[in-house]
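Long-time lurker. I teach an intro course on protein structure, and each term I like to show students one example going from raw sequence to a predicted 3D structure in token notation. This year I'd like something fresh instead of my usual example. Would anyone be willing to generate the tokens for the chain below so I can use it in lecture? Attribution to the forum is fine with me.
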Amino acid sequence: MSHVPTAASSRRRTATGASTRSLAASLALSIHDLDATAAAMSSHPLLPETTMEEEEEDETAPLSMPSPTPLPARPITVLAICILSEPVSLGLLFPFVYFMVRDFKVVDNDANLGYYVGFLASAFSLAQFLTSVPWGMASDRIGRRPILLVGLLGNTLSMVAFGMSSSFPMAIACRLICGMLNGNLGVAKCVLGELCDDSNQDRGFALFGIAWGIGGIVGPMIGGLLADPAHQYPNLFGDCSFLVQYPYALPCMVSALVSLVGFVAGLVFLDETHPDLRTPRLASAHLVEAPPQVMVAGGESAETLITTTAVHHHDPKHDDDDIRITDEETPLLPTPDTNQLDDPYRPVLFGLGWSSIHAVTGYALVALHTTLFDEVFALWAVQPVARGGLRLVSVQVGGALAAMGVAELAIVLLVYPAVARRVTLRRLYAAALAVFPVAYLAFPLVAAVVRARFGAQDADGGVALVTTEWALLLAAMLVRLLSSCLTFTPIMCMVRLTYPQL
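-- Reply from a regular --
Happy to contribute to a lecture. Here you go:
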């Protein structure tokens, strides 16, 4: 039987094309940023001139890094608990969002459900996108802590309301409200930047990977195991009229409980980290500012060079060969208000220099195609085999995503530190970007293998994937996850490094 293209398959091809284009743009941007940043570094007064052969030798030689400053244990732990609520609330949605929209009976043909699933899944991110800047500005005025607490409380209340949604418009409204009240992601990164210095920022920002890894385990497991409990566990919940009427309330309430725990922990234990608003206890005990440790050739820190080395400075009133000894007050990096036209830190847009713009745009493009994949995967995995899907049920989708959460923890805790000690942030970021297309192309191959075994037949209640097919699916998910973990942490560090005020 010949396969007839459907509207759903056309949308999947369009989404795949959009993901590929955004990935290509992100890779091109990273290459442009490498050239611009390298040019800026080559003109830095503290960096000695080297030949091409010396540069190649330096790249292969290991760098002797300074001892990193220990991370403040209590604020980092409390912040991790606060961050955890967002990946849990997002991850639990993927296993059952398709079935939730189907139960709303918004369309007669299931092939058209993808439009409405996309609207519902993107409502939170859309509202968060529109309100992130106002929340960030508010955190600069009143502090990081109040904004984090408002976001956690808003997430708690909106998740309970979302689980009790009885119609598609009500579900959309709940997700929009949840996104509008939740500016935690950007504010939490500001808190991390204020808790870390240059020597430990990679470990600090890896906290996001750990929190999202745990959320990637807990969220899909909650969503897959607790969705529609009256039908999944009739002996336990079959007589509960509330869960029969609201089949998706239980996982949403568990997610709300996680947010509530984060709210209480933040309210009791989290201190303000804003430099102008922080509490005296935090300023004296946790945020002892360390001098910047920028490594130069030979493993020597720039701080040593500032106090012991004669540095050439160009002064219009003096010869280029004049030498002046700098003191400890001389800034190592150019400040944002410099008048040099080629300075990558010079503010050109919203107080950001070109280096910051490149890094932020690169982060946005990576987030675009990874989020696009997450949304498409949740829809693709439950589609019938005849339409190119796997016909998985919510428990199977949740189990696969939970397995990737375990893998994400292992990558962040074991793989990333080992790789980051040997590769620069920019090279790691560019290399990880190049692996994404391999992962994205693997998923249609998995569907082709399943379709070759089942033909055009469709199995109600889920397709029993054989061991080989599960191995292919999990391998494709693992490659994509590895690329994601090795991309986000470096790009977040680069965003901080290219914005000297952080």
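Some talking points for your students: The chain is about 65% helix and 0% strand. The first strand starts at residue 310 and ends at 312.
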